[in-house]
Amino acid sequence: MMETCPVADLELDLLLDAVKKHYGYDFHDYAKASMIRRVRKYMEQSGIKHISELIPLFLHDQRAFYRFVKSISVVVTEMFRDPDVFKVLREEVIPVLKTYPFIKIWHAGCASGQEVYSMAILLAEEGILDRCQIYATDFNDDALNLAKKGIYPAEDIELYENNYRLAGGKHKLSDYWVSLYDSIKVNSRLSERLTFANHNLVTDGVFGEMHLVMCRNVLIYFNEQLQDRALTLINDSLCPRGFLCIGRRENLKFSQISEHLEDVSNKLRIYRKLGS
Q1: What global pTM score does this model have?
Q2: Separation of alpha carbons 74 and 217, rounded Å
């Protein structure tokens, strides 16, 4: 039987303290209800009854801890996810990016990489991929390894192709991959402008001067304090007049950075940094 809420809250705080001190991962500002759900799911899978039992387990078994990190790093993505967002990026953001001699883009929380390759396809079709550098980051190394390989289940092809058409695709999406039995592999030419790296929005610093930052469906797992910290880091990573795209269930109106951004499409959560 699970602990009562006050006991669970206390045990969770002790667990997160131990994790921060021993591994340097700070999950204190993740939304508590979401964190408890994920901890309990991990406990059920591991046959553990009390949250406090995770403390010695994680301190003495590094593999168990990193399995936990993997389990709480939600990898939910698809190629051209929310195609209307990619359509607006194509029609309203890319024309501005074309005016720069060299373009830097950051995908923060890239998960297994499908949206990163979608961006590379979009840039290739608009004729500017060769003068772009795309940085794709996540704190989940397993997800990053999947992203680097660019291999995805063939069962998702129909969904990807439909998204691509709705996003204003100019060719056939199958032009951008090769078939491997029950999988597809993204063409290596799309990877030439990609750099994958481990980066944690909670603990790491500013990530260069970017013309576009994509950080979609990451902030929803943070409380407002951590959201504001991450958004400030992202804002500091944007060059003047750079663009930011967050998830449509996310909001930045509560954050201090909202004063430094103007709407491109508030409905689709696309913004542009003020400045000259």
Answers
A1: 0.80
A2: 10
